[in-house]
Amino acid sequence: MCSGRVDLEFILRAFSNGQDGVFIGGCRLNECNYITHGNYDALSNTHLCRKIMEHIGLNPERLRLEFMSGADGNLLAEVTDDFIKQVKTLGPLGTSEGMDGKDVKFKLEAARKLVPYLKLVERERLRVPVKSEEAYTAFFESEPVNRLFSELFGDKLAVSQIMLLLKEKPLSTSDISEKLDLNPSDVSRHMNASSRQGFVRYDTASNCYMLA
Q: pTM above 0.85?
């Protein structure tokens, strides 16, 4: 299977299912057997996923992408052994990051719901103009892209987490603020926007927000 078909959703789902690390192996860049150069899509998805992981508090070193040819059996064994050692050093998912399993799963589920949105963002605003590993690394690690990603992803992630909480039961602004460690004014801002879009409604009797 082409590494370009390893969707962002697949990676997040693997972590959500409890995998402590995810390894992706792709063909060498610029040696694609097809005209699609899907390994560059895999490279882009990996950079995006590592940013998501940083944003939700997971160590991005739990995800690795390596490029090699079908003749690189020794290299495959070497890099996979190294990655296994690295993941074992990090320990079970969430442990070294100071999160319990429930919290990790919650944050990953909220992030997974944003994959369609991120694909649109990637197409429109996070496309790398030059196809080279160096160009992709420089682009995704640049300060403007880090700032743009935080702006585009931060609020969306907060709203996604709030929606998951409200799916369980109605909550007040202070409840949401406490559970997600968000400023109450930010919670009110997110709820006002979500109310205008018809996603939530405010119950005056209980002073709580609930899904519409």
A: yes
